[in-house]
Amino acid sequence: MASLPPSYTNKIGMSQSGGDVDFNLKLFDYNNVYVCGSSVFPKNGFTNPTWTIMTLSNRLSFFLSKKINI
Predict the structure, then answer these.
(1) CA distances from 6 to 11, 41, 64, 65 (A)
(2) From 20's CA, which of 6, 11, 26, 70 has a CA 20 to 30 Å away?
């Protein structure tokens, strides 16, 4: 039996009807609330999600730094 990380509780979607966060990982209908972790994946995979989560975190950090002009 495999132990899988929790996924798809806040999945990425094109709109609120298709997901909970947009492609910049911002929660729909909220200002300045972002989610970054395996919960944004649409479904569980077969490999460890650590590298994907790190990449999403890095991408989000660049997005937020541009948003606040750092």
Answers:
(1) 11, 9, 25, 28
(2) 70
CA distances from 25 to 8, 10, 46, 47 (A): 13, 9, 23, 22
**Model confidence over 29-53: pLDDT tens digits?**
999 999 999 999 988 877 888 999 9
Enumerate residues 6+ apart whose C-beta is below 8 A from 6: 38, 39
Tell me, what's the pLDDT at 2? 59
55 vs 52: CA distance, rounded Å: 5
**Under a CB-based contact definition with an 8 Å cutoff, are residues 12 and 25 in contact?**
yes
Number of other CB atoms surrounding residue 7 within 10 Å:
17
